[in-house]
Amino acid sequence: MPPAAATNLGYEPPDGGWGWAVVFAAFISIGFSYAFPKSLTIYFKEIQEYFSVSYSEIAWLSSVMLASMYAGGPVSSMLVNRYGSRPVVMVGGLLVCTGMVLASLGTTIIHLYLCVGVIGGFGLAFNLQPALTIIGTYFQVKRPLANGLAMTGSPVVLSTLAPLNQFLFDSFGWRGSFLVLGSIVLNCCVAGALMRPVNKRAEFQPSNGSPTSRRKVSVEAAAVDFRSQSANPPTKDDTNKSKCQSFVSRYIDVSLFTHRGFLIYLIGNVLMFFGFFAPVVFLAPYAKHLGTDEYSAALLLSIFALVDMFIRPVTGFLGNSKWIRPRIQYFFSFAVSYNGVCHLLCPLASGYGGLVVYAVFFGLGFGMLSALLFEVLMDLVGTHRFSSAVGLVTIIECGPVLLGPPISGALVDMFGDYKYMYYACGVFVLVPGIFFFIMHYYNYKKLDEEHRQSMVVEMRISEEAVELKLNQNEKTDNER
């Protein structure tokens, strides 16, 4: 485990107390962020008939909303770094509410793209990143468990919104339902109010030296710094460049693109997200294609959600154990590879019973991956840089999130069968899983080498300091 990610906080996180209220708030905020776009599909058929648009045009509504949620990541990260999580989440709830209210007055499908997709998607981005970030400020030892519990909000909220949306649809139609949903999503403002900033009690490391020696070291360091600046005076261009870099780094840490662990995570995730959402989206249509009735096809999603809901906190508990926590990246690599194998074996499932077995195993894999998805990023880059890291990751991932399901749908149209789509998704997910295993082995090996080198340097400095002290003592004795 990278030492910086675990210890360089500057204060001692409470690992409990009000932190559990923050986990509950993140549970609500993350739940709405991931479940809301999926739950709106219940209204697609009526909206499609009302505006006389094709299925592909109405299907873009959820894709635009998810892509906007991911694209808004850097903006959300900058606001979190500047103002903290609480106000950003509350503004996000208001944005989603505004988008849904305006969408209820929509007259064209483009109107819905802008209101639900863009405004609502950006609101969800303001809910997601701050909720993920604040958990890292409250938890260190129990952080995987806290992240696993918070990520459980997605299947729980989805299983709640699905029947609620059906009731609203039957009672008020899509326009009235959008108004009611706009008021329901204001619960994110309540969740944001619970996200009280952590009380950062700084803990300074004691020094073995006397105040005089510490003052002497400071003076010597300042003198060395002064001499180096005098030898290399900054030019006007360097000054302007430094100001620009400091302005950018104040809000988002672009130096992450030189961070080895971050690049490994980013490269693997970009490829993985091409096949991440499509198997869930096409599970029920695949069952209907095999001759299953609509009720039984919908039951597959319920089985999937139930297993997903159960495995996420269990994954957090396992990830927090002393056996897995030090090498949690291998656990994540296993979860990614496991999902890929499930998709590759899905076409071999025969009949409805085979699809039920697939839904159970897929729910296990999807829940494990989702529970670890942001925990491993925090483990790689540390809590201080996590907000910027998740913002950069999400804006780059919005491309695969937007294009993944349409590409998978094109494979179905091309071959007239869903099995080739599942094969493609399996490859898209399994290859990054293997990539993660190899590269994290390399990363852990390099981290161990760097740790040993730093220990050698520290020992050498200590020995030189002791030798210098002895020489000074001998010189003092001789002068006497």
Number of helices: 21
Give the fraction of residues assigned to helices: over 70%
Low-confidence stretches: 1-7, 202-232
Number of strands: 0
Average predicted local confidence, pLDDT: 81
CATH superfamily of the largest domain: MFS general substrate transporter like domains
Q: Could you state the order of secondary-structure elements as H and E? A: HHHHHHHHHHHHHHHHHHHHH
Radius of gyration: 26 Å
Architecture per CATH nomenclature, i.e. the level-2 architecture of the largest domain: Up-down Bundle
State the name of the first-level CATH class of the largest domain: Mainly Alpha
**Major sheet, described briefly?**
none
Explain this structure.
The chain is mainly α. The protein is globular and about 100 Å long. It has helices at 3-7, 19-39, 44-51, 55-71, 73-83, 85-103, 109-138, 143-151, 153-184, 187-194, 211-231, 236-251, 260-272, 278-281, 283-289, 294-319, 328-345, 351-372, 375-381, 383-415, 419-479. The protein folds into two domains: 12-197, Up-down Bundle (Growth Hormone, Chain: A); 255-465, MFS general substrate transporter like domains (Growth Hormone, Chain: A). This is Major facilitator superfamily (MFS) profile domain-containing protein. Keywords: Cell membrane, Membrane, Symport, Transmembrane, Transmembrane helix, Transport. It is found in: Cell membrane. Residues 19-444 form the Major facilitator superfamily (MFS) profile domain. InterPro entries: MCT, MFS, MFS_dom, MFS_trans_sf, Proton-linked_MCT.
